Amino acid sequence: MHSSIAIVVPAYNPPEFWDYRLVDKFNELREKLPEYHFKLYVINDGSNPEIGEEHFAYIEEFFPTTLVLHNSINRGKGFALRQAIARTKEDYIVYTDIDMPFTIESMKSIMDNLESYDVVFGIKNKEYYKQLSLQRKLVSKILQIFIKILFPRLPVSDTQCGLKGMNLKGKAIFMETKIDRYLFDLEFILNAAKSKLSLKPIPVALRDGIEFGQMNAKVLLHELFNLWKILWRK
């Protein structure tokens, strides 16, 4: 198998040395999964000017086929991913976070199922939750309860894990999403299920040492409104 896969990562005010880490992780991915042909897509979603363009140029220097896109203002991860995914030409698409926080084994599990399913997405295993802050654990668990109640026909309630893959059918559905921030993942999985695409949830693990920051209260309140919008469209 030598399928072509677009690896899409959005960047918004990434931490120091993010560019070096991304080069390292993407090289590791290519070395350990030689059966796939990868192209990297990076979308800068309105980061502060201090995150200079030289950091993005550094990525392009190591991987000349990389496509780097820039938004002048921050619009949200969902918006940024739609912009980048619209530009992909590969057979399959996998999106994740700028630090590529998931183990190679987890990413391989997603990719190995792309030929058999339209949308393949990670769900959190028990070890994953141990690496989350108390706030993020609570947000994740409460949202899953809401999803079980509001969308009982959905095959899983864990929709927000930041590792997902899709074929071209999945891409078409993803491009129809409207939510710009956190809950675009839920919208995507819901729309894919409604369209009767084949879905495959897969437990995934984080790399050692990965830590997620606190979620902004303002963002959480905004996402409650987005949840209402998704429910209204139902």
Q: What structural class do the secondary elements suggest?
A: alpha/beta
Net shape:
globular
Total helices: the number is 9
How much helicity do the residues have?
Answer: 40-55%
The CATH homologous superfamily is termed Spore Coat Polysaccharide Biosynthesis Protein SpsA, Chain A
First and last CA, distance: 38 Å
Strand order in the largest sheet = 3-2-1-4-6-5-7
Give the overall average pLDDT: 91
What can you tell me about this protein's structure?
The chain is α/β, with parallel strands linked by helices and 234 residues long. It has a single domain (4-132, 159-210), classed as Spore Coat Polysaccharide Biosynthesis Protein SpsA, Chain A (Alpha-Beta Complex). Helices cover 43% and strands 18% of the residues. It is built from nine helices and seven strands. It has helices spanning 18-32, 53-62, 77-85, 104-112, 126-130, 134-150, 168-174, 184-194, 217-233; strands at residues 4-11, 37-45, 67-71, 92-95, 119-124, 164-166, 199-204. Strands 3-2-1-4-6-5-7 form a seven-stranded mixed β-sheet, with helices on both faces. α1 links the parallel β1 and β2 (37-45). α1 runs parallel beside α2 (53-62). The protein is globular and about 50 Å long. The mean pLDDT is 91.
